[in-house]
Amino acid sequence: MNNFWLALAVFIGSHVVAAVPGLRRTLIERWSEPGFLLAYSSLSVGLFAWLIVAAMHSPTTPLWAPSPGAYLVPVILMPIAAVLLGASLFAPNPLSIAFVPGTLDTQRPGSVAITRHPTLWGLSLWGLSHVPPNGDTVMITLFGGLGFFALVGMAIVERKKRSALGADWARLAAGTSFLPFVALLTGRTRWRARTSTYVGAAIGAAAAAFLLLGGHLWLFDRDPLALF
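RE: above sequence
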């Protein structure tokens, strides 16, 4: 099997397996929730790095040539995705995927006020925004597949969390929304956040600036500003 397809299968499979309620519960009981999150996050980062390297070195078939307009899509959307991901780094979020355990502070929900799935929306924006400037079969599969996987994951996570939280779901979800910014724009919630939210958002913004100003070229041998 091609290394890319193997890496993709293992990466997606690891997330599907980790979402199995019985297995997840057993691992949390054995390692504690912080221990499980640390191990799972470390595994995900390692598998993601393998996937990216495999994609960069995999034989592929070009389908279209990139244009300045195509490059503009991730240039605009990636800073948003990075800030959204960063803002969710240190925030407990029982309504969706979270990097840290804990309960949601409904008085200062931070990134959860934007959407109850800030991590998954950030990942989806990352993946789908990279499709237009990467017109070959491997990169379309990588970015389009992972972006779509994150979108599907939101629906799956939503269903599971509703079931797990029961009556608490309505109370915790009242000040947020599935689609980004709907709860803020309709007045169901106000923007209030802890310092950790701003620290995370600053980390995301710094990461986006680093990638735009040479980091992407250094890491991936592709300059997102090449056609401007």
